[in-house]
Amino acid sequence: MLQPFRDAIKLFRKEVFIILKSNYYIYYICPIILFILMIGNWIIYGFVTNIYYLNYSLLILIIILTIMGYMFMFIGWFSNSIYSLIGAVRAISQTLSYEVRLIMIFFSINNFKGILFIYRFYKMTNIYMIWIYIEIIIFSIFC
Question: Taking 70 as the threshold, does the pLDDT of residue 13 lie above it?
């Protein structure tokens, strides 16, 4: 029961290493920006009591996911280490490969129903027919 609290205390007591040749402020601000973007994704996610009614929330979701990929690139670049840059390039290529397929699935559903508001995906009436179309689209994208 107390293990998460012990981990938090250990994390706060750890020694902070400052990389000498790194761009210190930008290097440590990028994870904060990543966290803010992640919270932004949860804000536009369509719950039943959606506070923010955004007509183009699907496009905003895609934009935020793309910007999060750039933050990984910035973290690898501003560390001024070749190994973390290689790791960042690997993470970006992996993220983009999944992101392109996700965008294709979203826009194919958008062409089917004309929906750019995420909450309306939940309000579709004929859900079984939608799942058949989604499965056909996913099969065609991954093959």
Answer: yes
The pTM assigned to this predicted structure is 0.67
Residue by residue, what is the 3-state secondary structure of the chain? Answer: CCHHHHHHHHHHHCCCCCCCCCCHHHHHHHHHHHHHHHHHHHHHCCCCCCCCCCCCHHHHHHHHHHHHHHHHHHHHHHCCCHHHHHHHHHHHHHHHHHHHHHHHHHHHHHHHHCCCCCHHHHCCCCHHHHHHHHHHHHHHHHC
**Model pLDDT, residue 86:** 92
Q: Other C-beta atoms within 10 Å of 76: how many?
A: 23
What are the extents of the domains in the chain? Answer: 23-142
Q: Which two tokens stand for residue 46?
A: 């369509």
* Per-residue pLDDT at 46 exceeds 60: no
32's tokens: 């904060």
The residue type at 49: T
Count Cβ atoms within 10 A of the Cβ of residue 142 and give its class: 0-12 exposed, 13-18 middle, 19 or more buried.
exposed
